[in-house]
Amino acid sequence: MKLRRLAATDLAAFQAYRGDPDVGRWQGWTPQADEQALAFLNEMATIPLFQPGQWSQLAVADAQTDRLIGDLGIHVSADGLEAEFGFSLARAAQGRGIATAAVRAAIALVFEQTGVQRIHAQTDARNSACIRLLERLPARLLARIETEFRGEACVEWRYELAQR
């Protein structure tokens, strides 16, 4: 696994896993038409990474082939002191420790390149795979949040992934 910038050449792989309802079940994003997805990939390929108040998306790629297998979103707070992570991984790449390795690598990158002091992630309490991943990091459960997701009442868990 390696982290890199997203690229226009990732379109087919990006659309494949982002179009998979099982991958997207717990995500805040929804599948996009090719034109919108390509615009997003091009934007993420060129924007400055880790800007306060903005989301950055990194590619999770296969180390041997460089083929896109997922992506990791990182939002740095407006004051630059906190970051929130989100991640998506193609179903065929799940269950092999790739997402755990990608999150760990991204945490190191954010701490190396920013003044971020704490990193968080939030997930639906029913997303057991994500919860297992967060606990493997290990992340610390901070809060239980009653909210609404896609028009449905739910509970989300907020975790602290790391702090400086």
Automatic annotation (TrEMBL):
Q: Does the keyword Acyltransferase apply?
A: yes
Q: What class of enzyme is it?
A: transferase
PROSITE patterns, alphabetized? GNAT
Q: Which residues form a coiled coil?
A: none
Ranges for domain N-acetyltransferase come to: 1-162
Please tell me whether the keyword Transferase is annotated for this protein.
yes
**E.C. no:** 2.3.1.82
| Name recorded for this polypeptide | Aminoglycoside 6'-N-acetyltransferase
Molecular function, one GO term: aminoglycoside 6'-N-acetyltransferase activity
List UniProt keywords, sorted A-Z: Acyltransferase, Transferase
For this protein, the record's InterPro entries field holds: Acyl_CoA_acyltransferase, GNAT_dom, N-acetyltransferase
